[in-house]
Amino acid sequence: MRDLIESMNLPNLLTLVRILCVPVFVAVYLIPGAYFWAATIFTIAAITDGLDGYLARRLEQTTAFGAFLDPVADKLIVVSALALLIGSHTSIWMTLPGLIIIGREVVISALREWMSEMNRRGFVKVSWLGKVKTVLQMIAIIILLANPPIMGRPWVMVGYVLMYIAVILTLWSMAVYVKAAWPTLVAGMKES
After folding, report:
1. Is the dihedral of CA 132, 168, 159, 70 positive or negative?
2. Tell me, what DSSP letter sits at residue 122?
3. 71-99 pLDDT, tens per residue?
4. Of 15, 51, 66, 109, which one has the greatest count of Cβ atoms within 10 A?
């Protein structure tokens, strides 16, 4: 417990704030007509995603706890938002990209865990492609959260287009990660 308290620097606190935003964000989105406020809470969480990493490097406050917690916080907020959007849009046009992005997150998390078990965690790092994917995905989610789920509305269509571009980048970045990890995966299968 003492180690946990000692690891509570500013970047880690921002990550915890992002996690605490999840239930608030979900509750607000479920209030009829509160699209703007839900999108605002999600935007704040998205900003803390970039800010905590920047501050950790800038202030030289990177910790093992932060390295563990940051991806967990990212996945919690994004998967929650996608689940809400899938439920409210009730359309294959939202369900398909949402499930692809959620599936990719599960695969990459499992891949990182596997690589860590094989003492090769550094082989599967976040690439520029993953960062671009994340930015487009966050913008698409914010746009879709901020607008009533009515197909044909201009901003909803912009959100869908950005979401589909993010899906293409999602699949591409997943292929890059799997390719980088493939030799380790094959070696691990041979050891079994």
Report:
1. negative
2. G
3. 889 999 999 999 999 999 999 999 999 99
4. 15
The conformation of residue 91, written as its DSSP 8-state character, comes to: S
| Distance (Å, whole) CA 73 – CA 19 | 5
* 187-190 LR contacts (CB < 8 Å, sep 24+): 187/118, 188/114, 188/118
Rounded Cα distance between 75 and 49, Å, is: 11
Q: Where are the alpha helices (DSSP H) in 63-153?
A: 64-89, 92-117, 128-146
CA torsion sign, 59 to 65 to 67 to 71? Answer: negative
User: How many Cβ atoms sit within 10 Å of the Cβ of residue 192?
Assistant: 4
What is d(CA 167, CA 33) in angstroms, rounded to the nearest whole number?
28
3-state SS class at 108: helix
Sorted by where each starts, the structural domains of the chain and their CATH numbers stand as 2-191 (1.20.120.1760)
| Tokens describing residue 163 | 């979401």
Amino acid identity, position 65: F
